Amino acid sequence: MLGHDAQRTGRSGLAGPSSGNPLWSVPISQHMCSSPALGSDGTIYVGGGSSLWAVSPDGSVTWRAPVKGEIWSSPAVAPDGTIYAGTMHGDSGRGGALHAFAPDGKEKWQYAPGFWVQSSPAVASDGTIYFCRSDGGLCALSPEGMVEWTYAPDEKSREGIWLSSPAIAPDGTIIYGSNSTEGGPGLLRALTPNGQLLWTLAAGSGMNHAPAIASDGTVYVCTNDDGHLRAVSPAGKELWTFAAHSAVQSSPAIGPDGTLYFSCDDGDLFAVSSEGRELWKTGIGGSQTQPAIGADGTIYVLGDKVYAVSSAGDVLWSTAPDDYSETSPAIGTGGTLYVAGSSTSTLRAIGER
After folding, report:
1. Is 113 helix (H, G, I), strand (E, B) or coil?
2. S-S: 271 plus which of 229, 248, 279, 283, CB 3.0-4.6 Å?
3. Could you give phi then psi for residue 221, rounded to 5 degrees?
4. Rounded to whole angstroms, how far apart are CA atoms 39 and 289?
5. Given the DSSP bridges, would you call strands 219-223 and 212-213 parallel, antiparallel or unpaired?
6. Residue range 21-351, CATH number
7. Entry pTM
């Protein structure tokens, strides 16, 4: 799923490629904003235009499932192989659905909440699916597609456009944020697994991406135009802020030692300690995507190229994708990195030949 896991850490248990060799590319019709998600058998799932695509590790298209509207968010794959993807259609923000597909591409069910589903769903350990609606509501569905509960914020809170995807803390708390459009602050919210609001925190200029949650429950979130990384306690208290020098449009990734990695619009990849201290920064030409971290600590990030950066901040390799991407890379088996290009609508594999 987006950010690799329900905590959105961006950290994989697999090693990524040690070189930037292109392996294959597959054209995926129409504009892509969807990051790749991987099944347990290595199948790559990605939304492209009005379809969900399944691509095998050798680059052949396994199936394509059409949907009404478009898929802008990243799919999530449950342990039983079910793929969940959100859709949006119409101009009013009220058309969309969460779809569930079997591994063979057959639709199992769909649920229409009455709003766009731009959010990438998160799947809890008990199989519950959480996703955000475009009005700021958060929905919880059973694996069978039944509504367990819906949280709807008050009218004042609905002034924001809710593009954040939820993250699930180790204790089951669901956390998500908003991107304000009215000049006020964005909001970070925490809810219990049964839908009760725990706390709300005003967080800078808002966020249009998911928070990342560490193993101790600390929540890390990047806020957009004011360019800050914020650390928030499990109780909703701001612990510290770190100021970058330009807007930050992506989620941070959390390394195995707790180091936080994120990139900003003007071109730097930052490494910040869990106490909020800058460790290093490396130029990558601008990025709006969350990095992916390999099992050995290598950071893979999309900037003006695809970059592999060591945990010490050294560029190990880079390769030009001839594309612009709003998506995050995903690490697969065999040291393969999968990248979805937004401008050319192409899914690419990078790895060892």
Report:
1. coil
2. 279
3. -145, 140
4. 21
5. antiparallel
6. 2.130.10.10
7. 0.94
